[in-house]
Amino acid sequence: MNKISKLTTLGAALLLAGCAMGPAPVPGDSQDVVQSKRGTPTAVYTDGAARTLEYATGPMGQYTWMAHLGPDGRLTSYEQVLTSEKFATIKVDQATKDQVLRTVGRPAERSHVAMQDYEVWSYRYKEAGVWNSLMHVHFDGQGVVRQMMNGPDPMYEPRDRGRW
Hints:
By secondary structure, the chain is an alpha+beta fold. The chain folds into 2 domains: 22-80, no CATH class; 82-164, 2-Layer Sandwich (Beta-lactamase Inhibitory Protein, Chain:B, domain 1). It is 24% helix and 34% strand. It has helices at 3-21, 31-38, 84-87, 97-104; strands at residues 43-47, 50-56, 64-69, 75-80, 109-113, 118-127, 131-139, 145-152. A 4-stranded antiparallel sheet has the order 1-2-3-4, with helices on one face. Strands 5-6-7-8 form a 4-stranded antiparallel sheet, with no helix packed on it.
């Protein structure tokens, strides 16, 4: 495939991906309107009569949007949650898996650290809106966050890095 064909294919894919999401919902929209604009959510979290609709782009995407609906079923806020600021709200030694899901949604990857017997959820995101990064959230056997670590996302690292 030549360079022009590759660029055309990439451009078409990006255009289709943008169209799939539709226009952004606005506060006051009903759940039906939010779903008509954004499609079927990847998850729904309930808290009494309030609900949060998750729109994750993972496992390869770096964005997850949360649509927060009040008890009246109307949109109160809509936000992109895979950010350094949102990760900073997750409290080590306090937050649970359920709280992490409600804060930043489902992870891109799940793994296990045998030495400490931790389950690790990893999230792709743009640190400071620029750097391709991974945030790793480590849970103990009771499902409590014990550690959080971030670093570069190896998916975006050049394969020949460090070679002359």
